[in-house]
């Protein structure tokens, strides 16, 4: 019986040398490990053997079986590796396209806006999304209980975070909120810099509002601020007309400047545009000449320097430019929508 096992092993060792491809390997596997193999036959005789004989023969038969399995597996791996180069790549097959990432439409629009202002020598600065009541409202000439606060439905952060020495008055409670606009950065920037300068401030803002096709509770704005001696509304008009004509690639665009109210500007204006093919005027931004109270609060002399400021909704501009019917699509994470903006 033991001789029988040795002869199976010897004949396998000879046969395995002759295998050159996976088809032959499969034939060899069936021959030596299949149900009708000699090894299988030999194992079936086990039951006729007595105790000790059965144990010795069983042990030996298992060793042979393990040997066959290990050699067969090594042989298969070697054959496959060889095949990778020889016959497994079909170079005539069309390739599979790799999925690549791309910019979100809002990032793209923000970049387009920045490029136009950078070309007009503006600098890009950013500010915190969590703001104090002081920067978001008070320093912008919107004190507590001022009715204008209702223009910005606010997400307040619970509790008082201490006391602050107000620039505009005595020590006051320091309350935090999610900034409702990018305008607080006007104050932060003016406190630390001396005119003349011109900046834009891209950023995410938050409003405690009901959402619909044109309103989100979190959206993006682009603030602008230019301060220096003799800056006037005429400068604002030129800069903003240049910007919109470039952004919409429409040199013949029409503009309308309507009087409006924001506590931090005087006079305040709302800008409307009419593009080639538009039938209606579209409101695109709030703006104005920086209020003298705001200039004074940051330590500037309003007799020496003046400035204009503006704030526009980046989402709304993206919607106009790319004909996006619902602002919520921008935040849906729906790839069918987002992938349309692949360049
Ligand atoms: C005005 C004068 C300045 O000198 C400087 C800035 C400003 C703008 C002011 N800070 C402001 O926030 N005005 S606003 O409340 O009218 O918002 C500006 C723009 O944000 C709007 O014209 C609109 O395009 C966009 N917006 C407002 N609420 C929105 C929104 N976009 C999406 N969802 C909302 N819920």
UniProtKB/TrEMBL annotation:
Its EC number is 6.1.1.20. The keyword Metal-binding applies. Binds 2 magnesium ions per tetramer. GO terms for cellular component: cytoplasm. One of its GO terms (biological process) is phenylalanyl-tRNA aminoacylation. Residues 107-332 form the Aminoacyl-transfer RNA synthetases class-II family profile domain. This is Phenylalanine--tRNA ligase alpha subunit. The gene is pheS.
């Amino acid at each position: 019986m033991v001789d029988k096992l040795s002869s199976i092993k010897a004949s396998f060792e000879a046969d395995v040398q002759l295998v050159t491809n996976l088809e032959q390997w499969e034939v060899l596997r069936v021959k030596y490990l299949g149900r009708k193999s000699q090894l299988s036959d030999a194992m079936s005789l086990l039951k006729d053997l007595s105790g000790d004989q059965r144990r010795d023969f069983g042990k030996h038969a298992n060793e042979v079986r393990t040997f066959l399995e290990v050699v067969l597996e090594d042989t298969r791996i070697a054959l496959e590796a060889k095949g990778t180069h020889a016959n497994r790549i079909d170079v005539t097959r069309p390739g599979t396209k790799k999925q690549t990432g791309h910019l979100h439409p809002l990032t793209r629009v923000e970049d387009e806006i920045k490029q136009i202002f950078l070309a007009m020598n503006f600098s890009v600065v950013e500010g915190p999304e969590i703001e104090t009541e002081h920067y978001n409202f008070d320093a912008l000439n919107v004190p507590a209980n001022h009715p204008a606060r209702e223009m910005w439905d606010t997400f307040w952060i619970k509790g008082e975070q201490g006391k602050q020495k107000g620039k505009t008055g005595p020590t006051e409670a320091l309350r935090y909120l999610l900034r409702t606009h990018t305008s607080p950065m006007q104050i932060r920037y003016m406190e630390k810099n001396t005119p003349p300068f011109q900046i834009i401030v891209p950023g995410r803002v938050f409003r405690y509002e009901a959402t619909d096709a044109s309103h989100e509770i979190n959206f993006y704005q682009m603030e602008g601020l230019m301060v220096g001696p003799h800056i006037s509304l005429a400068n604002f008009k030129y800069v903003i007309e240049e910007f919109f004509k470039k952004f919409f690639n429409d040199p013949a665009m029409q503009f309308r400047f309507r009087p409006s109210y924001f506590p931090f500007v005087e006079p305040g204006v709302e800008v409307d545009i009419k593009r080639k093919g538009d039938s209606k005027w579209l409101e695109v931004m709030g703006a104005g000449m920086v209020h003298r109270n705001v200039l004074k609060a940051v330590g500037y002399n309003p007799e020496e320097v003046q400035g204009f400021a503006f704030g526009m909704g980046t989402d709304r501009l993206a919607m106009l430019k790319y004909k996006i019917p619902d602002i919520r699509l921008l935040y849906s994470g729906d790839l069918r929508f987002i992938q349309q903006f692949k360049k």
